[in-house]
């Protein structure tokens, strides 16, 4: 069967199931994505091509159990998880109404349009998106509070490198918040599901329940059926990973666990890695312990639980401080903690511990945008461009300093593509009469570059280790043209794999206007410094920047 026929068959089957349901028509947006993030996802894609392409080339798979973590794979899985928030609930409702009126073709078209933004992102990634389960407006049979999951598959178009990414959507409509609240209580799963462990009710019922008196399968079975259908047209084994953020991370964990128990049901699809972001605790110890044992099998991938520093959601639900619970809520696996100012670090496992309730902390670190910043830092060593909220504060004791800091923090355009084409011989002026200084504190750098009567005051994100300030040469066509110009400045290492030279490229209105070249005191593989530079005559430059930085 042609792959397009497979996708259409899955979509129509999904529509038929929706039409049988008594939908809860209250898709009130309460998304964990901040306003603007839907557009940001396209910008993130543009800015993060290296991580995305590397992850897809790996099939978002790091190898069998106990293989090291690859943060390019983590980043790609995160992008899939974030994309799931872009579903248009109103178009889904219209599609169902149209189908019930007998217009199957029109209904299918509307259903496709409900995922237009996700489809466009997938296309940019070289993938195909297909909806598997869409039950956000429906209660599981026997329940009138919680609602079902939304999940889909990101399918590789590369027949020589086939993969499937099963992604679950996180909390995004009012009814889904009831799932989160309902999770405090637990239910013991049947013996054939999830090792018969105690699972949070608000997480178990949506994934393993039926949704009407009609004889179609629960969401987990739909996921398994989709894996089998999609992989049936592949010419080689398909690697399948599972991912989600927040509530989606919980569904991903339960789905992946049951796939570990049952397998994919086809020889054409192997189970790869699990990637979760900001996941609450899924169940109690009698679920976590047997899964930990099962994860030692070398026939599958690994489970990677990613926690943004300060994300309180990862600490709930939790047992009361007293009396001590013999079977507390615990996470299945040890986390990797990511942040916006340090490399990722493995955290401690909760197996064998008794986590207790703690005082709530601000919600912000749980947001999709905050995870994006931290994962960008994890994969590149720098924060992404386009953000003016760096969580930093500058205390300056001189006029002008705070303005320059704000300029540096306000999200500079990444002009590295221009940097690659720079030829120093194209510049008429090459001055060695330069004075340069730069200081870096807590991910930020302040510096000055004086050339004759001009001084450029630099404020940037990042660090510039190993520069020899006595070796600077400035190449430009006109010093006078620099005066009064606020430019973007992009610093990079040049030369071989172990460069001995670095440069700051100054760009104004998309044109390289000057390049400062430095010798390095020590060989470094990468220098990362993005910011701004304001030029003025030296006799106006009477103040000195000073101060300190601190996280807030």
Explain what the structure shows.
With 552 residues, the chain is α+β, with helices and mostly antiparallel strands. The chain is built from 16 helices and 23 strands. A nine-stranded antiparallel β-sheet has the order 14-18-21-20-19-22-17-16-15. Strands 1-2-3-6-7-9-11-12 form an eight-stranded mixed β-sheet, sandwiched between helices. Strand 6, helix 11 and strand 7 form a beta-alpha-beta unit. Helix 1 crosses helix 5, helix 3 packs across helix 4 and helix 5 runs antiparallel to helix 6. The longest helix is centred in the first third of the chain and has 17 residues.
Morphology: elongated
* Unreliable runs: 21-31, 388-413, 540-552
Number of helices: 16
Give the class from helix and strand content and strand pairing.
Answer: alpha+beta
Helix content: 25-40%
- N-end to C-end Cα span: 57 Å
**What is the overall pLDDT average?**
77
Q: How many strand segments?
A: 23
Strand arrangement in the largest pleated sheet: 14-18-21-20-19-22-17-16-15
Largest sheet: 9 strands, antiparallel
């Amino acid at each position: 069967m042609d792959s397009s026929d497979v996708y259409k068959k899955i979509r129509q089957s999904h529509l038929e199931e929706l039409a049988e349901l008594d939908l809860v028509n209250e898709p009130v947006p309460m998304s964990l994505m901040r306003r603007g993030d839907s557009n940001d996802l396209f910008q993130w894609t543009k800015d993060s091509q290296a991580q995305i392409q590397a992850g897809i080339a790996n099939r978002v798979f790091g190898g069998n159990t106990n293989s090291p973590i690859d943060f390019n794979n983590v980043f790609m899985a995160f992008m899939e998880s974030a994309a799931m928030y872009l579903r248009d609930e109103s178009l889904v409702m219209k599609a169902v109404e149209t189908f019930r009126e007998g217009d199957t073709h029109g209904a299918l078209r509307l259903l496709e349009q409900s995922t237009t933004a996700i489809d466009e992102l997938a296309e940019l990634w070289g993938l195909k998106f297909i909806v598997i389960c869409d039950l956000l407006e429906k209660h599981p049979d026997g329940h009138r509070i919680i609602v079902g999951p939304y999940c889909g598959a990101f399918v590789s178009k590369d027949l020589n490198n086939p993969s499937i990414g099963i992604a679950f959507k996180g909390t995004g409509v009012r009814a889904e918040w009831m799932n989160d609240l309902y999770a405090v209580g637990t239910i013991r799963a049947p013996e054939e599901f999830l090792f018969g462990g105690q699972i949070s009710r608000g997480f178990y019922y949506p994934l393993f329940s039926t949704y009407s008196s009609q004889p179609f399968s629960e969401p987990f079975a739909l996921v398994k059926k989709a894996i089998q259908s999609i992989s049936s047209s592949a010419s080689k084994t398909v690697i399948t990973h599972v991912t989600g953020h927040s509530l989606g991370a919980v569904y991903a964990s339960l789905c992946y666990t049951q796939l570990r128990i049952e397998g994919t049901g086809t020889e054409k699809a192997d189970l790869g890695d699990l990637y979760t972001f900001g996941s609450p605790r899924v169940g109690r110890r009698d679920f976590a312990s047997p899964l930990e044992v099962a994860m030692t099998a070398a026939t599958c991938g690994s489970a990677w639980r990613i926690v943004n520093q300060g994300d309180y959601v990862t600490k709930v639900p939790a047992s009361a401080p007293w009396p001590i619970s013999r079977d507390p809520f615990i996470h299945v696996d040890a986390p990797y903690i990511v942040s916006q100012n340090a490399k990722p670090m493995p955290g401690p496992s909760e197996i064998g511990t008794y986590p207790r309730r703690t005082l709530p902390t601000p919600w912000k670190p749980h947001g999709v945008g905050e995870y994006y910043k931290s994962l960008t830092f994890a994969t590149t060593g720098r924060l992404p461009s386009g953000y003016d909220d760096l969580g930093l504060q500058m205390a300056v004791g001189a006029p002008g300093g705070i303005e320059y800091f704000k300029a540096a923090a306000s999200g500079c355009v990444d002009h590295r593509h221009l940097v690659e084409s720079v030829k120093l011989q194209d510049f008429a002026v090459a001055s060695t009469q330069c004075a340069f200084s730069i200081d870096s504190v807590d991910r930020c750098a302040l510096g000055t570059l004086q050339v004759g009567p001009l001084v450029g005051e630099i404020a940037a994100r990042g660090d510039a280790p190993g520069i020899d300030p006595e070796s600077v040469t400035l190449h430009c066509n006109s010093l006078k043209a620099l005066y009064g110009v606020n430019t973007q400045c992009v610093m990079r290492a040049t030369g071989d794999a172990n460069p001995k030279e670095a440069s700051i490229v100054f760009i104004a209105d998309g044109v390289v206007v000057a390049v400062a070249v430095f010798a390095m005191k020590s060989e470094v593989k990468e220098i990362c410094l993005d910011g701004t530079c304001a030029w003025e005559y030296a006799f106006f430059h009477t103040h000195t920047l000073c101060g300190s930085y601190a996280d807030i």
